[in-house]
Amino acid sequence: MRARLGLLGPIAPRRQKRVPRAGYSRAFAREARVPARRARQGEKKAEQRRTPARPSWDAPCPPRLYYPDAPLPPHLEHWEALDLENSTVHLVDEPWRHFEPFLASRGYSLCWRYYSQDRPETPARMRSVEYPVARDPFRPRSWESFVHLYDEGTSQDCGIHQTTGWLTQCANLKMAHDSQDRVCAIKALHNSRARTEIDIISFLNSPKLRACADNHTIPILDKIVTDDWTFIVMPYWPRSVQTCIPWEVEDYFSRLIQALEGLCFMHRHGIVHRDISVGNMLLNVHSSVPGVYSSFAARNIALAFIDFGCAVRFPVGSDPGAWLGTGHWGTVDHAAPEVPRRDSDPAAQQTPYRLPPVDVYAIGSVFARALAWEHVFCTTFGNPEGRATAARQVLAARVPGFRALLQRMQETDPARRPTAGAALGEARALRDALPRAVRFAPAGGYPEMWGDGEGQGRC
């Protein structure tokens, strides 16, 4: 009774029995709905074919791929020349931004340098893992450091700071960290405009030539090729031959002999560098080796040539006397007298000159300037570690043939300059003829009486 009155809740209405229309049956209704249902199922399957199935949470996600072959905007097409004009120097990072996701997918994290507070530069990374220095600097293996990380002062706990060295001078060079957190240098080269440089550096890093002990070309770690650009990945060697002060006479010969070995190797394989300078000959050390108790030979400090943008290649075995060039190439500070300057008249620009003596002159100029820089540095700040006698003083007083060799390499007449092979042989003979006490410094440094007498503890 209470249920009828709604005291226990509302009363559900009775279900009305459906009365089929005349001539209409359930079987006919099912048959009428089948084509529509099949059509909907076909549309659903077609949509599934167009849209890939979403992977389950347990399945690993596929790596994200980037398409790097999209061309650069027209105002960025000449990437390598953006830093040459004041109107485009602010655009040097835009091409790197274009390729940053692609390079990140290959394991390279680019470093950025800015001078504003709203866009700070990439900070120096702390050295969380100490990698051993590569036994062979020109063929480093995984989990080996490229350089000797000896930082000065309070930066002992930090890695290489990304604004140091030679990478801050070129638009198409960028510093990066690889997947093992090692510091690399990435150079972007256009596949058509820089084809000669790509071919030369790839040739010098071929397995056969890379196995040669006298090949002092910077090694290639990776080569990434797109439709328009090739990215050459190299180890970052931040120090030039000028900014390291040797502590014994052997170190001077070690640097010069390595440079001449590399030059002989290139000339023997038909390659002329044409842009040898202070910044294009690097050492695999971050800063000056701490203390005066560390020689270059003991630390296995190597020298490498970089930047083959001005290099030319001739057939192997051809006559080097027929290797001729015209026009201005290379760095003005170390250009031979026969190389015309940029502002010279057209007739001088078209006058041919022999190319191998140009490289010999440049090496002599680089090492002569390194001696002059060291003299100014020591005169201003004193000898390293406050020693009474520096290696430069012993070199000047006991080995006059070293500077004489550099002067002959800088003869005004190209015919009077020694070839790279002759200069190498003379440097080796000069080193081997030295007494051991002059060639190698004792544990406490050279005696004071061996100096050239240029003041108290001054170079």
From TrEMBL:
Feature: compositional bias, Basic and acidic residues: 28-50
The record's GO molecular-function terms, alphabetically, read: ATP binding; protein serine/threonine kinase activity
**Biological process GO terms, please?**
mitotic DNA damage checkpoint signaling
Provide the alphabetized UniProt keywords. Kinase, Transferase
Report one GO cellular component: cytoplasm
Task: Report the residue ranges that make up the Protein kinase domain in this protein.
Answer: 144-430
Q: Where is this region: Disordered?
A: 16-57
Q: Which domain of life is it from?
A: Eukaryota
The keyword Kinase is assigned to this record = yes
Keyword Kinase present in the record's keywords: the answer is yes
Q: What is this protein called?
A: Kinase-like domain-containing protein
Q: Tell me which species this is from.
A: Mycena belliarum
